[in-house]
Design goal:
This protein has 162 residues and is of the alpha/beta class. The strands form two sheets. It has a four-stranded parallel beta sheet with strand order 2-3-1-4, sandwiched between helices. A hairpin with a 4-residue loop joins strand 5 and strand 6. Helix 1 packs across helix 2. The protein starts with a helix and ends in a 10-residue tail after the last helix. The model has no long low-confidence stretch (mean pLDDT 89).
């Protein structure tokens, strides 16, 4: 599935310069997925297609990477990738939301919590699996239809599309 995500990132972000949200099933998977896509792009020498080319955007991302607390986010931000989940500090989550809203972050890998209460539209949304772990049940459960609709609702809003 990570290879499919990489291909779609290259297609939508690399070629069309559009932003993308990738929803994953766990906090740990946010960094794992983002790093896989970033590392594959570096290996395939396509990272330049994904990153913003202007020096100002790169400077902003570098400065923000130095300011955030989350170690995975520090590692990913300079490449134009972000992660977002409930386990991150408020300041780090706010920074990611602001950077994505202004277009500095092009690929944001997040959990379903982003779909509720945060207005961050993107051109493309990928839902990487529809099961999440439920500690109460001690097993994997399907996302509710409402959760899936909230995630899909981040995409394809013409007023935010360029």
């Amino acid at each position: 599935m990570n290879d499919v995500c990489y291909t779609k990132v290259l297609e939508h972000v690399g070629k069309n310069k559009q932003q993308m949200l990738i929803f994953v099933h766990s906090r740990k998977e946010t960094a794992k997925t983002a790093k896989y896509i970033r590392d594959k792009a570096v290996e395939m020498e396509s990272i330049g297609q994904i990153m913003r080319n202007d020096a100002a955007s790169r400077q902003i991302l570098q400065e923000e990477a130095e300011a955030v607390n989350e170690s995975n986010l520090k590692d990913l931000l300079p490449y134009g990738f972000g992660i977002h989940h409930a386990g991150m500090g408020v300041a780090d989550r706010t920074s990611v939301q602001d950077l994505f809203a202004e277009g500095s972050i092009r690929v944001l890998v997040c959990t379903a919590t982003l779909a509720w209460g945060v207005n961050l539209p993107a051109h493309t949304v990928i839902i990487k699996g529809t099961q999440v772990y439920s500690p109460e049940k001690g097993s994997w459960v399907e996302l509710s239809p409402q959760d899936v609709l909230q995630m899909l609702g981040r995409a394809g809003r013409p007023q935010y599309d360029s």
